[in-house]
């Protein structure tokens, strides 16, 4: 959010400070304090029996110079990539794609092929049949030929002005327990039995593609309980508790992320992932805190935001409750899944807006930092990952992933890799000559 990791509206099911401050839908679980040895603290019961969470500083990026976008006619307010307009990008062979990036992206693309050929592309850019030649060829690419594969079967395409913004997310780990016990008293809720989803497109063609979530109250369909009501007990006998977390602040950020790991008292790990959400809009608390002057220039790091919440437990809880969105989880049997229902891969998978990027499509990001520049595959979505050339890069799990995702906020240029002939077909349909 691992979208978000299962659709990151949710897992969303996620992200760096820039993402948090800009009212994002993806996020990371930040370090609990500025000390490497201080036990996790909370506004709840004593956490002295919980292992301390190590402080992992944000990784400082190595600067890079992005490739300049191609000249293009901007279409402000475009609702899909097709209406935003597409421009032929640089030859793929000219892009600085490393052999390792190409090999890893090829593996992810192969995994996505059955979905990309079957799935309706809401971006308006491709049809399922367009992907068949590349997918057939991908099955027999020899080791070492991944770069040549992408150069042969794809063309680079710039959507709109090509100006990209990328954040980062990862699979966080927090302390948790299967059962409620001293120090573990924050419920991790599964899907409520009375939460319903309505496809509005079934009622009106004008509402096609729009869905709402809520519950039945008497004879009325009403919004589902918000975060405050849920934390005050509204879910009693309505939702299963699949686990118990040790810290409400860490659990809040894991909800923003949409998936993660619970480190159990015996040292084992329970993976949880996004199941559904209460249908309420997401509000980024970092943006609120900054606007209200609660955090100053020296407190705008991820650590500073969390430390403020811990130093002001009552006000912090009120701030968190201004984000009415609430995520419900399920236990995952394996690695986190993206919006395609497939495992996402650190350093390869990215979340994107399906109205502007076909899910399963490769994308080359040329950004102002070296670590995020490279070939990615759009395998996830996110509640706040909306609009043209907006991406959320997935970095996997562990300290390195957290250090990178925690400070990820990169700008540059995005080039989608689409089947050869896509630009000519789209522009012919619009009466636009293609060079």
Explain what the structure shows.
- The protein is α+β, with helices and mostly antiparallel strands.
- It has two domains: 17-191 and 240-429, RlpA-like domain (Barwin-like endoglucanases); 192-239, no CATH class.
- Helices cover 23% and strands 24% of the residues.
- It contains twelve helices and 17 strands.
- It has helices at 17-21, 81-84, 99-118, 132-138, 146-153, 227-231, 248-257, 285-291, 302-311, 313-321, 399-406, 422-429; strands spanning 86-88, 154-159, 163-171, 173-177, 186-189, 196-199, 211-217, 220-223, 241-245, 259-263, 269-277, 327-332, 349-352, 362-367, 374-380, 390-397, 409-419.
- The strands form three sheets. It has a six-stranded mixed barrel with strand order 3-16-13-15-14-17. Strands 5-9-4-10-11-12 form a six-stranded mixed β-sheet. A three-stranded antiparallel β-sheet has the order 6-7-8, with no helix packed on it.
- A hairpin with a 5-residue loop joins β10 (259-263) and β11.
Strand order, biggest sheet? 3-16-13-15-14-17
**What's the rounded overall pLDDT mean?**
85
Kindly report the oligomeric state of this protein: single chain
Identify low-pLDDT runs. 1-19, 21-52
- Based on CA inertia axes, which overall geometry fits? globular
* SSE pattern, N- to C-terminal: HHEHHHEEEEEEEHEHEEHHHEEEEEHEH
User: At the third CATH level, what is the topology name of the largest domain?
Assistant: Barwin-like endoglucanases
The N- and C-terminal alpha carbons lie at a distance of 38 Å
* Strand-pairing-aware structural class: alpha+beta
Number of strands: 17
- What's the main sheet like? 6 strands, mixed, barrel
Tally the helices.
12
At CATH level 2, the architecture of the largest domain is Beta Barrel
CATH superfamily of the largest domain: RlpA-like domain
Structural domain tally: 2
Q: What's the level 1 CATH class of the largest domain?
A: Mainly Beta
Strand portion, in percent?
15-25%
Helix content percent band: 10-25%
Domain Lytic transglycosylase MltA: 173-330
Keywords: Cell wall biogenesis/degradation, Lyase
GO molecular function, one term: peptidoglycan lytic transglycosylase activity
InterPro entries: 3D_dom, MltA, MltA_B, RlpA-like_sf
């Amino acid at each position: 959010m691992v979208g978000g990791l299962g659709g990151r509206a949710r897992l969303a099911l996620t992200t760096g400070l820039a993402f948090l401050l800009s009212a994002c839908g993806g996020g990371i679980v930040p370090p609990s304090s500025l000390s490497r040895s201080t036990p996790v603290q909370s506004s709840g019961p004593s956490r002295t029996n919980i292992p301390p969470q190590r402080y992992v500083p944000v990784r400082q990026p190595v600067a890079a110079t992005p490739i300049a976008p191609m000249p293009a006619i901007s279409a402000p307010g475009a609702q899909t990539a097709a209406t935003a307009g597409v421009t032929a990008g640089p030859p793929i062979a000219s892009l600085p794609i490393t052999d390792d990036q190409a090999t890893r992206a090829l593996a992810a693309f192969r995994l996505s092929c059955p979905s990309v050929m079957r799935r309706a592309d809401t971006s308006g850019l491709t049809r399922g049949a367009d992907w068949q030649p590349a997918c057939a060829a991908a099955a027999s690419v020899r080791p070492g030929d991944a770069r040549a594969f992408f150069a042969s079967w794809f063309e680079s395409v710039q959507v709109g002005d090509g100006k990209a913004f990328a954040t980062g997310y990862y699979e966080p780990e927090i302390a948790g327990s299967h059962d409620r016990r001293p120090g573990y008293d924050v419920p991790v809720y599964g899907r409520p039995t009375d939460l319903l989803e309505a496809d509005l497109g079934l009622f009106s063609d004008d509402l096609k593609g729009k869905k709402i979530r809520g519950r039945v109250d008497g004879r009325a369909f009403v919004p589902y309980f918000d975060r405050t009501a849920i934390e005050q007990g509204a879910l009693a006998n309505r939702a299963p508790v699949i686990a118990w977390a040790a810290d409400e602040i860490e659990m809040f950020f894991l909800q923003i992320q949409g998936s993660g790991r619970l480190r159990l008292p015996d040292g084992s790990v329970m993976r949880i992932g996004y199941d559904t959400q209460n249908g309420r809009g997401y509000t980024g608390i970092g943006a609120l805190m900054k606007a209200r002057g609660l955090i100053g220039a020296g407190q705008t790091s991820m650590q500073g935001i969390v430390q403020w919440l811990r130093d002001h437990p009552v006000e912090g809880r009120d701030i968190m409750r201004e984000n009415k969105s609430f995520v419900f989880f399920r236990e995952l049997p394996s690695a986190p899944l993206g919006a395609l229902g497939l495992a996402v891969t650190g350093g390869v998978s990215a979340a994107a807006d399906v109205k502007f990027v076909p899910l399963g499509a490769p994308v080359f990001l040329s950004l102002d930092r070296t670590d995020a520049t490279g070939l990615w595959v759009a395998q996830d979505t996110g509640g706040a990952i909306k609009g043209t050339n907006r991406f959320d890069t997935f970095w996997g799990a562990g300290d390195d992933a957290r250090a990178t995702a925690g400070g990820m906020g990169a700008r540059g240029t995005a080039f989608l890799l689409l089947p050869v002939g896509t630009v000519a077909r789209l522009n012919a349909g619009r009466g636009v000559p293609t060079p």
